[in-house]
Design a protein that fits this description.
single chain, globular, two-stranded antiparallel sheet, 4 helices, 98 residues, 2 strands
């Protein structure tokens, strides 16, 4: 069964930082930009997940996955987060006329 929380709105809202970060990364290679996005998303997910878990409000639990850290992030999701970050970057570039 899926679960969610009102806390997910500000957590997902943190993706708005991809816009300014994409301007700073400018001409960096795609894999480097993707890796930076992945690390950023992992960091946000770990910090927010740890906080929510401490207060027994975390709607996700990855503790059964092999590549989990403290049950709040899954390292095997790295390629997905890279793709998500690069996709958001592309959407922002299109909407900003670049």
């Amino acid at each position: 069964m899926g679960q969610t929380s009102l806390w997910m709105f500000p957590i997902y809202g943190m993706a708005s930082i991809i816009g300014p970060v994409s301007h700073l990364l400018g001409k960096c290679p795609v894999l480097l930009r993707g890796a930076i996005y992945s690390v950023g998303i992992f960091t946000g997910e770990y910090v927010s997940g740890s906080f929510l878990k401490k207060h027994k409000m975390c709607p996700w639990d990855y503790s059964r996955a092999k590549a989990n850290i403290d049950g709040v992030i899954r390292l095997d999701y790295a390629p997905l987060w890279m793709f998500a970050g690069l996709t958001f970057e592309k959407i922002l570039n299109i909407t900003n006329g670049k």
